[in-house]
Protein 1
Amino acid sequence: MLVNEMTEKDCRDLLARSSIGRLGCSQDNQPYVVPIYFAYELDYFYVLSTIGQKIEWMRANPKVCIEIDEIASESEWVSVIVNGHYQELPEPQYADERAHARKLLEKRYLWWQNALGERQVKSGEELITPTFFRIRIGSMTGLRAIAEGR
Ligand SMILES: Cc1cc2nc3c(=O)[nH]c(=O)nc-3n(C[C@H](O)[C@H](O)[C@H](O)COP(=O)(O)OP(=O)(O)OC[C@H]3O[C@@H](n4cnc5c(N)ncnc54)[C@H](O)[C@@H]3O)c2cc1C
């Protein structure tokens, strides 16, 4: 198996065709990683989110990372790690950005169900007020593994 660095263009192409990533945040030297749906555009990931631990932690420490991958087999995969900065999009001051995030996320299949379903089960609430946030990309690296002989 050969592992090579990906170009920035290849990294961004992966982000553009992906919709699930692992979001990492931390507080008091404790990492916390959760799967999330996102929509990527230019230098931002947009996310619809329930309010809970990850939001509280990112408010306290906006330095985050996101890992995205495509795994065809043990020896054929791509993986991109993005370091970025959390920015919440509350109303009314970010109404335009929220509308934009909603538009981007609506293109994705069942984008809202995972974000809201989990919290509804947990709280038993009928109505939930989600929040939107975005991650501004600071840097990224990508690795591509290729099976030898291919
Ligand atoms: C494929 C997929 C896509 C998802 N997309 C979104 C999305 O777009 N937006 C969104 O808000 N959420 C999404 N979720 C749910 C997300 O992973 C979190 O479970 C959820 O957001 C609650 O996170 P929280 O930090 O607010 O946890 P809280 O509700 O505050 O709960 C905190 C506690 O629950 C545990 N916990 C929380 N989430 C998980 C988990 N996923 N697995 C195991 N333990 C957990 C933590 O360890 C912690 O102790 C998605 C989940 C999956 C599997």
Note: Strands lie at 2-5, 20-27, 30-37, 39-41, 44-49, 63-73, 76-88, 131-146.
Protein 2
Amino acid sequence: MREVNRIDFNCKNIVPWGRSFDEYVDMFNLSEADLARDIVGVGDGPASFNIRMHQRSTSIVSVDPIYRYSEVELRERIQETYDDIIAQARQNQDKFVWTKISSVDKLAEIRMQAMDEFCQDFEKGKQQGRYVDAALPHLPFPDRYFDLVLSAHLLFSYSANCDLAFHLDAVRELLRIGTEVRIFPIVDVNSNPSPFLSPVIDELEKEGVTCSIERVPYHFQKTGNEMLRLKLC
Ligand SMILES: C[S@@+](CC[C@H](N)C(=O)[O-])C[C@H]1O[C@@H](n2cnc3c(N)ncnc32)[C@H](O)[C@@H]1O
């Protein structure tokens, strides 16, 4: 990866933060039929989507470079970073919509529960091949291996850290491994429009990909209630 795309994955530098199964359902507008598809989540981090899908006996794989660490290391890192993350959330309360998640305390409770569920499942899930240590833009799966590819709070979110070339390589890789891709949100971490959204869509459309921006039920970042859906024609 180019300099601008390098993320240092020393365990002391990562900030693990994962969302709940219900949040995933809303972020990607997942129907019961969607939940029965072969799904991979790319950049899932310590979210509880994988464990909850597994409990439903549904096919699920999560991919993230933080999966190279152990449960103990990840739990320690969650504890070390928790106070800072919550302090930042309090400072930036005006940037979020406090309806479904009613307060910073509720946010902390939901996220810590999700991450605890992830941690309890992680070592077993890793052995079962449900948590795969890998990173965009190169994923260790054959072409069209999955039916539905989800990626939350990674592409477009980190527009300040990853350039257009990385976004294009990453999205092409997501399209290589699955028949449909959904990316949420399409704004950056400060709720500003990503400068890469239009160029990515323009390029993919030239390559025969159908791209649509769709409103979803999840609304936490003020401008963050839309996902990008991609399908190869
Ligand atoms: C903000 S977290 C989002 C976690 C989860 N998707 C959610 O919405 O709760 C972003 C995740 O992307 C992962 N990540 C960073 N660079 C990545 C890459 N090149 N490929 C895959 N995942 C990456 C990070 O390790 C982190 O767990």
Note: Residues 122 and 210 are 35 Å apart (CA to CA).
